[in-house]
Amino acid sequence: MDVFVVEGGRRLDGSIRIFGAKNAALPLMTAALLTDQPVTFRDVPRLDDVDNMMRLLAELGCHRVNEADGPSGKIVLHAGDRTRSHARYDIVRTMRASISVLGPMLARRGEARVSMPGGCTIGDRPVDLHLRGLRALGADIQLAHGDIIARAPGGRLKGARLFLGGTFGPTVLGTANILCAATLARGETVIESAACEPEIVDLAALLTRMGAKIEGAGSPRIIVQGVESLGGAEHTVMPDRIEAGTFMCAAAITNGDIVLENCPADALMCVMDRLEAVGVRFEVTGNDPLRARCRVTSSRVLQPVEVTTQPHPGFPTDLQAQLMALLTLADGNSVITEKIFPDRFLHVAELARMGARLHRQGATVVISGVRRLVGAPVMASDLRASAGLVLAGLAAEGTTIVNRVYHIDRGYEQFETRLASLGARIVRRDEKDVQ
Ligand code: EPU
């Protein structure tokens, strides 16, 4: 297993390009199941989760028909004759986003069988809202042998008005599933309490190019007029706002000065607002606020802040760990409350091993800023928690060894190479070669 070895204490300086978003790419790719025409994606990040999705789609009869071009590549997906409508457990368990094939398969094939995703390290992660939404569209859904077995009576779903909010607010992948399903349903669908995340807007843009009739994506009410069929299209995946936010925190924690090209600044308003309160400065230029040039600099003294994670446009849960790493070095007490995944705190105990002073009570963590972090071997079993530990390592005195780097490889393309290109001292090693 690989580890990252990080020597802290270097200011980040330089420029990098933000790659296509993992959390946009995964549901976008499943939209290829909605048509018998090829769908072309550009700026698909090279990540383990994308490979897993490709493997799953291939099992479901949707093949890649080109080779990659460049580091952040082009993929053409073509759903040929159906082979199988069963997303099996051995793939689903590697990636919860596999649930996104349910809506598209059910919409076009009239049936789908998807292994029920289990819990994961960041919490329970139920799929009840996905199922509630599909049932509202007329699907008959049974659970058997750990699988979700879904059928559309008469082979086609029926448009409906439905409410998709849950205890923790809207669901992102649930909205993606119901949106895809509604594009081919008979009649009109109104999704109330839809997720407003930019990745849903990106998905709606692709579906619209494929011939879907969608209004309101990006707002809590999405209206879809079902059509008879969808065609092929070309789409460039939106840049990754979580990757951009992670590099913003990396610049801040090293008192750096970096430029992010292709930065989705418009999707990061809340993050930039909170980081400005910490003392981070942004200069955003360019004509497209979703693909801007963003210079990030930081003051030496970081101010403490209070932050609550929320659905978009609030502060994203996927940047909570990275922000916490930054706030460990603020001049005073900060408070972070997690409202999306109340147990998503795998990084807390590990940051404490590096000298951070943290006090967790339920879904809230009080962070009492310290003057310095000290490098240590650390480990976290969640993608974003691991990214937060790398950031802490960049600022810590001495050597930090971040174990289980495969979590980071799921969601950050060439993370260590790009940090190193900005001046960080970070290398990948086999754990056997590191004491
Ligand atoms: N929820 C339910 N029932 C459901 C679905 C969700 O109660 O049927 C709850 C969840 O337990 C959670 C909240 O609703 O408390 C929001 O979960 P959501 O469904 O929005 O999460 P998701 O769609 O499964 C995506 C991202 C996550 C990100 C969340 C929240 C992808 C592939 N995953 O997950 O990304 O944290 O939205 O923004 O898009 C990551 O990239 O590290 C990651 C975990």
Kindly describe this structure.
This protein is of the alpha/beta class. Helix content is 30%, strand content 27%. It folds into two domains: 2-19 and 239-433, Enolpyruvate transferase domain (UDP-n-acetylglucosamine1-carboxyvinyl-transferase, Chain, Alpha-beta prism); 22-236, Enolpyruvate transferase domain (UDP-n-acetylglucosamine1-carboxyvinyl-transferase, Chain, Alpha-beta prism). The protein is built from 14 helices and 24 strands. The strands form six sheets. The chain has a four-stranded mixed sheet with strand order 22-23-1-24, covered by helices on one side. The model has no long low-confidence stretch (mean pLDDT 95). Residues 23, 26, 96-97, 123-130, 166-168, 171-174, 195, 316-318, 340-341, 383-384, 411 line the site of uridine-diphosphate-2(N-acetylglucosaminyl) butyric acid.
Give a short synopsis of this structure.
The protein is of the alpha/beta class and 435 residues long. Helices cover 30% and strands 27% of the residues. The mean pLDDT is 95.
Strand-helix topology:
Elements: E1 2-7, E2 13-17, H1 22-30, E3 39-44, H2 48-59, E4 62-64, E5 73-79, E6 86-87, H3 89-92, H4 102-109, E7 111-115, H5 128-136, E8 140-144, E9 147-151, E10 161-163, H6 172-183, E11 188-192, H7 198-209, E12 213-215, E13 221-225, E14 233-236, H8 241-253, E15 257-263, H9 269-278, E16 280-285, E17 292-298, E18 306-308, H10 320-327, E19 333-337, H11 346-353, E20 357-361, E21 364-368, E22 377-379, H12 383-395, E23 399-403, H13 406-411, H14 415-421, E24 425-430
Parallel strand pairs: 2-15, 3-14, 6-7, 10-11, 18-19, 22-23
Antiparallel strand pairs: 1-23, 1-24, 3-5, 4-5, 7-9, 8-9, 11-13, 12-13, 15-17, 16-17, 19-21, 20-21
Helix pairs in contact: 1-2, 1-7, 4-6, 5-6, 6-7, 8-10, 8-12, 10-12, 11-12
